[in-house]
Amino acid sequence: MSGAAVRGISLLGATGSIGTQALEVVEAAGGRFQVVGLTAQRNVRALAALARRYRPLLVAIADPARLPELRSELAGTGVRVLAGPEGMVAAATLAEAELVLAAGSGVAGLVPVLEALRAGKQLALANKEPLVAAGHLVMAQARQAGITIRPVDSEHSAIFQALGDQRPYLARILLTASGGAFRDTPPDELARVTPAQALAHPTWRMGPKVTVDSATLMNKGLEVIEARWLFDLEVDRIEVVLHRESIVHSLVEMVDGSVLAQLSSPDMRLPIQYALSYPERLAVPWGGLDLAQVGSLTFEKPDFARYPCLELAYQAARGGGTLPAAMNAADEVAVDLFLAGKIGFTDIPRLVARVMERHRPAPAPSLEQVLAADAESRQVAAEEVGRWPRCS
Questions:
Q1: Going by DSSP bridges, is the β-strand pair 150-151/170-177 parallel, antiparallel, or unpaired?
Q2: Could you tell me which residues are beta bridge partners of residue 156?
Q3: pLDDT digits over 85-96, tens only?
Q4: Which residue of 1, 60, 199, 349 has the lowest C-beta tally within 10 Å?
């Protein structure tokens, strides 16, 4: 192991939950990886602190208005500082980066992901939205570049690991879901739950958007769409099962009826590390699984009445075209409004459904059509909420 070549990594979304855990993986790997690029959306101080610690060649902040502050923070360090979409793409295509870890969130990650693949970079993908909004474009670019995308989501990593070279024999995928913060909350109480309660996930350590999406099960719906593209499988052959313990991270059923699963402790550093080190496996100071201590593993079907966002995601996946992009944009707006205390928890699926009803999907959309659908759906979502009596 000690003689292995050092792998240059550009980390898009370095200050978020996945990004910070990825840097823990880098440090634990004992010099196997070198951070050559770092980006963040708007957290200048955190990004600057990481740049001083890891001394990358380049850092970029997505918000151009924060460029002067970032430059001031890093004056004299020799680190190249950029901003805006151009900065994100520069980090994604950095010559010294063998691998790009897309760890941010939102459809803003789509163009950097496409450009990383176009530049021939190995891609480790944690950012859901590029595949949700434009999976056909991302996978076409990956095929053209001869690159196999390494999934970082624990569920897709589990499928990737369990499937191995048996993909021709895949019958269906079973995606596991914890059920989120409100899996035991009576349905008639959901309208009154608070953002703080939604963010109290029983198992995982994640960012606020993903945690709320876990509570609505939209997160699992997005993962259904991701799995459809990553593993080239019809949507109706991808099922969701509730698994409270978060030990079985997903399962694959083969044509002969065999079911293969990947199990581990609920720690995102494990799938992150696998994506970075693949095909190797590195020893780590965390992890380990004591099944006797876990005791039992339970599985049940999700209730679409409790989790309407999951049903909406299936509808978007079956509808195709720009409908998933519209759904995703509406969900981003709805979650932001919920976290800001401007709408209730049960208003999230209500708003997403309304935006989807008003959307007219474009089939086989171009990048420009996907981005236009995203922008239009955000505007429609804002218009819809503006009409609601409870919102001033």
A1: unpaired
A2: none
A3: 999 999 999 999
A4: 1
Instruction: Give the Cα separation of 235 and 103 in Å (integer).
Output: 25
Q: How far is residue 125 from each of residues 40, 272, 347, measured CA to CA in Å?
A: 16, 9, 30
CA–CA distance, 386 with 113 (Å, rounded to integer): 34
Residue 302 and residue 162 share a domain: yes
How long is the chain?
Answer: 392
What b/e string do you get for 166-192 counting C-beta neighbours within 10 Å, with b at 16 or more? eeeebebbbbbbbbbbbbebeeeebee
Distance (Å, whole) CA 186 – CA 256: 40
Cα(110)–Cα(333) distance, rounded to whole angstroms? 18
pLDDT in tens, 27-77: 999 899 999 999 999 999 999 999 999 999 999 999 999 999 999 999 999
Work out whether strand 259-263 and strand 248-254 pair parallel, antiparallel, or are unpaired: antiparallel
Q: Which of 148, 181, 210 is where one domain is finished?
A: 148
Say how far apart CA 374 and CA 383 lie, in whole Å: 14
Query: Any bridge partners for residue 232, and if so which?
Result: none
- For the segment 281-314, what is each residue's pLDDT rounded down to a tens digit? 999 888 789 999 999 999 999 999 999 999 999 9
Query: Which domain, by its residues, includes 158?
Result: 154-267+285-307
pLDDT reported for residue 202: 74
Residues 32 and 140 in one domain: yes
* Domain membership flag for residue 263: yes
